[in-house]
Amino acid sequence: MIMMGHFALLVFLAFASMQLLCIAADHDAAIFYDSFEEPFNGRWIVSDKDDYKGIWEHSKSEGHDDYGLLVTEKARKYAIVKELEEPVNLRDGTTVLQYEARFQNGLECGGAYLKYLRPQEAGWKPKEFDNGSPYSIMFGPDICGLTNKVHFILKQKNPKSGEYVEHHLIDPPRVPSDKLSHVYTAILKPDNEISILIDGEVKKKGNFLSAQDFDPPIIPAKTIPDPNEKKPEDWDDRVRIPDPNAVKPDDWDENAPMEIEDVEAVKPEGWLDDEPEEIDDPEATKPEDWDDEEDGVWEAPKIDNPKCQTAPGCGEWKRPMKRNPAFKGIWNPPLVDNPNYKGIWKPRDIPNPNYFELDKPYFDPIAAIGIEIWTMQEGILFDNILIAKDENVAESYRDTTWKPKFVVEKEKQKAEEEAAGSDDLGGFQKKVFDVLYKFADIPFLSKYKLQILDFIEKAEKQPNLTIGVLVSIVVVILTAIFMLIFSGKKQQPRVEKKTEEAADTSNDQGSSGEKPAEEEKEEEKENETGGAAPRQRRRDT
């Protein structure tokens, strides 16, 4: 038994030694790595440029003992740079760029990308690092307005023109929208393949030399439109033109208004002309701390006039407007085919003087890593920045430095969401009730208003009945809609304008049993709305 125990101990020690050796080997395989476990002062250089006032801090990631480089203030520009011991040649073999970023307070507008800078001979100094400092690659998340992407930009020199051009990866992946730690990886392979990973998962693959993957293409077009050629003055590229022979009709009145007053409209019976739509709230009182000199003369808030609730409307009645049957608008001649149409003009193509060919991109070596951002949010944490020549090394770092933190954060997030779900149920139900109260005020549901309000009151007293109440109200609404549809199909007698003969006939209606025209119009309105005509406000007429 003792020998077995010794054997087990030896196996454990051997396994532990292997793990340590693997970690040490990974560190040896990394060209550059910074875990930020030690303060960054002296290793990273903060820009002295006036525009960059943001303060960097060596800080722990929330909920962990792991340190990182923290953005501390909102609405600031930040710039900091780390020189590499030796420039990294990106043209030899595979190169992996990887780092972690965490938006601890969320991110609405700002960047969290890295710039991999060219050697200082290109014209920059660490203390003067800014957005104009020449970089070879820019990589990382950026969110603001409609922008939401993980950038990958290659800045390459055109050997013909000598100019540096930014080539943007087309359709880059979106940035995770949470407050968790995420690891961003770019793998550049010798066969010109580029892969972008988020949390170890491939989100985008492309080819550096493909015109479908980079804009503008890294290899320019062989021909370009002649910039010196201009369209001839007599070139007509209009497919259709206004008919030159067309004449405006004599009865076309361009000045006729779109809407006119409905002269047939009659003020509803019971309309309260002398009552305002809103009155001062009689229950409102002036606040004790109200100062007329500082706050102005206090006025009671307005409420709907209760007298208008049972009336068809209040205030000055005005006839509603209706579409003018004589309205035609501005006259325009019809379009006809253009007999002089020559097609769409474009300049002729000429050989592109800046065209070149290559079998792989011309990567400038990277001699430093910089973070140069402008952000509206504080709390952005950078961590575990890595440059390696082996993607397995990058995977090992993800597994040992990022993944344990992410698992803890994910579990905490899940627990908080479950707790918030139960706490927010009451708030959700309140929103449902608010919507239901608005439904009750819909005019064509006026006949069912009391029934709907009764359902809502029961649900407020017993929140567990909310779903049942929703179903009940839906049934009521559907019933009202069906009644509206079927009542709308009834053929109502059309009421013509009264003539002297009709007027004489109407005098005998008491014996004939027929209804006055005004009553028939009221019934038509009721059938169209599925019930009694709703109360009208002055602004609705």
From TrEMBL:
Gene Ontology CC terms, in alphabetical order: endoplasmic reticulum membrane
Residues in coiled coil: none
Disulphide bridges, residue numbers: C109-C144
Basic and acidic residues compositional bias, start-end: 227-241
Chain ranges passing through the membrane: 465-488
Compartments where found: Endoplasmic reticulum membrane
GO annotation terms (biological process): ERAD pathway; protein folding
InterPro entries xrefs: Calret/calnex, Calret/calnex_CS, Calreticulin/calnexin_P_dom_sf, ConA-like_dom_sf
Keyword Repeat: yes
Key words, A-Z: Calcium, Chaperone, Disulfide bond, Endoplasmic reticulum, Glycoprotein, Lectin, Membrane, Metal-binding, Repeat, Signal, Transmembrane, Transmembrane helix
Renumbered residue ranges of the record's region Disordered: 214-253, 267-317, 493-541
Keyword Cytoplasm recorded: no
Acidic residues: compositionally biased ranges: 271-282, 517-526
Signal sequence bounds: 1-24
Any one GO molecular-function label of the UniProt entry: calcium ion binding
Gene3D superfamilies found in the cross-reference section: 2.60.120.200, Calreticulin/calnexin, P domain
Membrane-related topology note: Single-pass type I membrane protein
Main function: Calcium-binding protein that interacts with newly synthesized monoglucosylated glycoproteins in the endoplasmic reticulum. It may act in assisting protein assembly and/or in the retention within the ER of unassembled protein subunits. It seems to play a major role in the quality control apparatus of the ER by the retention of incorrectly folded proteins.
Family the entry assigns: Belongs to the calreticulin family.
Protein name stated in the entry: Calnexin homolog
Native source organism of the sequence: Gossypium gossypioides (Mexican cotton)
